[in-house]
Amino acid sequence: MVLEYLGRPVAYDRLLALLDIGPIGAPRRNILRLSRLQFDVTYREATLAILATYLRAGHPVIVFVDTGELSYWSVTTNHALVVIGLNREHVLVNDPAFAHAPQRIVHAEFELAWLNGDNTCAIIQGTSDQAIDLQWLSVS
User: Fold this and answer.
1) Average pLDDT in the 98-122 region?
2) d(CA 110, CA 73)
3) For residues 71 and 31, what is the distance between their CA atoms, to the nearest angstrom?
């Protein structure tokens, strides 16, 4: 999702191999391997305020969550979501497991799911780092 958004799509099979994704997934830190494809990758702990800062700069943010805390999921697993917007009540995410986007998650639910993912996130930027305006994704 994010790589396509940056205008640099990578074939799914190539991503699986690069990130060493097996039948039960991969360690979150494997996202750093995208630097081998000339992406700048930041992996860190964050807060909602930090996510908002990245979003205002035009950078979607990948967050790592426990789906058992998300009301729209029926199974519990570790998972990655792409945060594309925030408002007073909801965090807006693109979830690769669902066709409908964005999913709207109330803050408390999101924060609990994200807490179980150690409040970690990843920001991927092209090496030229041309931020793209995400304002149209925000919901008032």
Assistant:
1) 96
2) 12
3) 26
